[in-house]
Design brief:
The protein is mainly beta. Helix content is 2%, strand content 49%. It is elongated.
């Protein structure tokens, strides 16, 4: 039975997050840190003087042939003979062998433990500091015909091969546990894009691989409630004691950044002195050129917060800058704070595209209300716990979200892992599973009773459940994922 497990380390706010149900356990896990990864926007795990730190995963599958792929970088001088980061294969009862990165750029295969008898030496594997190298290792567990082969940076032939060695000091000709650890203090060794695959009869070489971490993009079909609920208010500038008087046909606009994916339908603008006349609100894009939404007129605005309503809901994207603009047909005194731009547009022509703007010292205080999507509450790359989330207690209720597409088209897809970070918040038992839908077929992780602390639920699919064939990039881009209440 083939086994596969991988990690791009991109979902963790802290390294301790890794052992909350994804990795099984870890020693002195807090001594391992997270750093900028191999590719822009990604993370790697950083072993810096973290002796005895490790992360452990058991497969529960007794396989003789193991492939371990990873990207490796050393940020300290390549010199000396200190044994550093290692991959140890174990059959639970006994340690079989270790792949060890030495501080001089040599990779060793040792018997049983990182400091055990050297079985193979791959000199010159790492040749430059602060440079990512990708390695794929093949280890065959056997007491007489064991072997160690390495391919570097996607090579299609072996860069190193040692055969006819004893990689099985234990009694069993297999391994079912992987430990990623640190033997001694080698300042700054890092790994990213880890993949462990095993099989009893053979594992194909996959070459240089990359983990693409993709988050929910939009709601496909949702039943869970939102928290905070029902809307999140983005206060873009706080009202102060100051006021600003804006003459008729003198517009003003201030920037705000959407705090969540969602829609804006309403908001408020603070007026200091009520007026007899009309005012209106519009929302522009970040370039202050395109009118994205316009409100109905606010007739005879009163002192205090005046609610505006957009004529059509505006969909906004988390982290994107927008500009809220106001204009009026009479002089209005607003509560104010520091503003961005003023412009001259007659109220009758407001809003106009690409108004000519000048700097401003004050602008009306406003608040926009963003009603988030369910996907927008669970799409943070680094988990934020109960800051934003969805929740449900009705058995068989489920959420499905579309997923952001892969930015490039990969040559092949090794596997798709669906992950969710869940906890229960009620007093009784509560079970759940993460689900992935491809085409007409929905698959889920094993229904699991949740803890009152957050932890990972996950499943990995080596083939497309919809076709039972190898994944295509198009199929990966079209999957939906989500969560289901099972008990």
């Amino acid at each position: 039975m083939a086994y596969v497990f991988g990690d791009g380390y991109d979902c963790y706010a802290a390294t301790a997050d890794a052992i909350l149900g994804y990795w099984d356990s870890g020693a002195t896990i807090g001594s391992i840190s997270l750093s900028a990864g191999r590719f822009a926007g990604s993370q790697c795990v950083h072993f810096a003087n973290a002796t005895a730190s490790n992360m452990i995963k058991s497969s529960a599958v007794n396989d003789a042939i193991h492939h371990i792929s990873c990207a490796f970088r050393q940020t300290a001088t390549i010199s000396g003979t200190t044994l550093g980061l290692y991959f140890q294969l174990t059959d639970v009862a006994a340690n079989q062998c270790c792949i060890v990165f030495r501080s001089d750029g040599t990779i060793l295969l040792t018997s049983a433990t990182p400091g055990g008898t050297v079985l193979a030496t791959y000199a010159g594997a790492v040749t430059a500091v602060n440079t990512w190298f990708q390695f794929e290792f093949e280890v065959v567990i056997n007491n007489t015909t064991g072997s160690f082969k390495v391919r570097k940076n996607g090579s299609t032939t072996d860069d190193h091969s040692t055969t006819g060695i004893n990689t099985r000091p234990g009694a069993n000709t297999y391994a079912n546990k992987l430990t990623v650890g640190m033997q001694a203090a080698v300042n700054a060794q890092q790994i990213d894009d880890l993949l462990w695959r095993s099989d009893a009869s053979g594992v194909p070489w996959c070459g240089d691989i990359r983990c693409y971490t993709r988050m929910p993009a939009s709601d496909a079909a949702v039943q869970f409630a939102r928290a905070p609920n029902p809307s999140l208010v983005s206060q873009t500038n706080a009202a102060g004691a100051s006021t600003t008087s804006k003459a008729a046909n003198l517009g003003c606009m201030s920037a705000f950044t959407a705090s969540f994916d969602g829609t804006i339908t309403t908001g408020t603008v603070a007026v200091s002195v009520g007026a007899t006349g009309n005012m209106k609100v519009a929302i522009y894009d970040a370039a202050r050129a395109v009118v994205l939404a316009t409100s109905s007129a606010i007739v005879n605005p009163v002192s205090g917060n005046n609610t505006f309503t957009l004529t059509a809901p505006l969909t906004v994207t988390k982290g994107t800058v927008y500009y809220l603009a106001t204009d009026q047909d009479v002089t209005i005194v607003y509560n104010s704070t520091t503003g961005n731009f003023t412009f001259t547009t007659t109220y009758a022509s407001f809003p106009a595209a690409s108004p000519s703007t000048t700097g401003a010292s004050a602008a009306p205080t406003f608040v926009v209300s963003i009603v988030p999507t369910n996907a927008g509450l669970v799409n943070e790359t680094l988990q934020d716990g109960t800051t934003s989330y969805v929740y449900d207690s009705t058995v068989n209720d489920a959420d499905f979200y579309t997923i952001a597409p892969i930015a490039v088209t990969p040559v092949s897809v090794v596997a798709v892992t669906t992950r969710g970070f869940l906890q229960k918040s009620d007093a009784g038992t509560r079970g759940a599973q993460v689900q992935m839908k491809s085409g007409a077929v929905t698959v889920g992780s094993t229904p699991t009773l949740l803890s009152s602390s957050f932890g990972w639920l996950w499943r990995t699919d080596l083939t497309d459940p919809n076709t039972t064939a190898a994944w295509t990039a198009a199929a990966v881009n079209n999957v939906q994922c989500g969560v289901k209440v099972t008990s």
